[in-house]
């Protein structure tokens, strides 16, 4: 899909969901990853918000990452089916200082699996990673074996201990998810009933840079 003759840069649009209970730090993680900033003043997301990041893959190929910041209360509404549409990966965030938010991860994962699938013949679930956020607030609170087992049990690709405040594993976790999606995309075949909604890593004909 790369046109080397005219030197154009091929861009791909990749939609990723960022979900989790209210106040777990979803917006802070996105702001740290996209803008390198951390805001101490908490502002609850209403409905859904968006952020963009341009990620170079090679000299002639980039990913335009579209992050959908889903409000914590939305899991109890009917709009998530609309928000999830055409997503190709997700991050579920929980708060290490509030253990009950880990209990909600199963419900978020079930909600995602029920409402969005990859557009392949097998309707494969989208890849999901788990972010154990605010590790700067709670030291030595993670049992790695327990979270490994939790991820295996719930078909979660991998977990990361993160802190938006201290910028711990934010870049690494997002990069891992993007690479996982690209690896899956290279292997899947579009399903026969997939009508026009081709893999959302579709070529972007515009090459004028990121709009963020």
Automatic annotation (TrEMBL):
Chain intervals for the UniProt region annotation (Disordered): 188-212
SUPFAM superfamilies on file: P-loop containing nucleoside triphosphate hydrolases
Main localization category: membrane
Gene3D superfamilies: P-loop containing nucleotide triphosphate hydrolases
Membrane topology type: Lipid-anchor
CDD domains (alphabetical): Rab32_Rab38 (cd04107)
SMART domains according to UniProt: RAB, RAN, RAS, RHO
Keywords on record: GTP-binding, Lipoprotein, Membrane, Nucleotide-binding, Prenylation
Cellular compartment(s): Membrane
Residue spans of biased composition, Basic and acidic residues class: 202-212
Polar residues: bias regions: 188-198
Function: The small GTPases Rab are key regulators in vesicle trafficking.
Matching PANTHER family: RAB FAMILY (PTHR47981), RAS-RELATED PROTEIN RAB (PTHR47981:SF39)
Family classification: Belongs to the small GTPase superfamily. Rab family.
Name the UniProt record assigns to this protein: Ras-related protein Rab
Organism name: Blattamonas nauphoetae
Lineage: Eukaryota, Metamonada, Preaxostyla, Oxymonadida, Blattamonas
